[in-house]
Amino acid sequence: MSVMAIDSLNPTEQFIEDLGLIAQADGLPRIAGKLIALFVVEGGPLGFSEIAERLQISRASVSTNTRLMESLGVLQRVTRPGERQDYFQLTDKPFVRLLEGTIDRAERARELVDRTNKQLGANCEATKERLCALGEFYKVLSSTASKVVDEISQRK
């Protein structure tokens, strides 16, 4: 998209585009970030066709990225009586669920670091020091994210 086209976006379109870029910078697909933004803006539930049209992406991209957002606990699949199509909406507390996933991955990484450190021989002191630093990183990440989850969960 050219710079001129970006300048002509309305605030919600700009939000969707920008959150896509932020998600991409965090290692997620750009479309995943756009999906989150779309559901924040539009609410939901939204069907595949609505999502594809609104984001101007293929149904395959909708399918891939809604599955990813489901696995991260951000979106949930819902149905409407009498319709065969699946719809999606934000889960209850989707952003807390994102953080809980981060906590879970940090805990698993810390366990891996600890297990590896215990398995290394005495002649690996430099490696063990770096592993300890990495383990401390994951410990602090998990602890801090847990505090954020607690604080967000206490708010309405």
- Overall morphology: elongated
Distance between the termini: 38 Å
The helix tally amounts to: 7
Largest sheet: 3 strands, antiparallel
**What pattern of helices and strands is seen along the backbone?**
HHHEHHEEHH
Brief write-up:
With 156 residues, the chain is mainly alpha-helical.
What is the secondary structure topology, with strand pairs?
Layout: H1 3-7, H2 11-25, H3 30-42, E1 46-47, H4 48-55, H5 59-71, E2 75-78, E3 87-90, H6 94-119, H7 125-154
Antiparallel strand pairs: 1-3, 2-3
Explain this structure to me?
The structure is a single chain. With 156 residues, the protein is mostly helical. It has 2 domains: 88 residues, Winged helix-like DNA-binding domain superfamily/Winged helix DNA-binding domain (Arc Repressor Mutant, subunit A, Orthogonal Bundle); 61 residues. It is 71% helix and 6% strand. The N terminus is likely disordered.
What keyword list fits this structure?
Arc Repressor Mutant, subunit A, 7 helices, 2 domains, mainly alpha, 6% strand, single chain, 156 residues
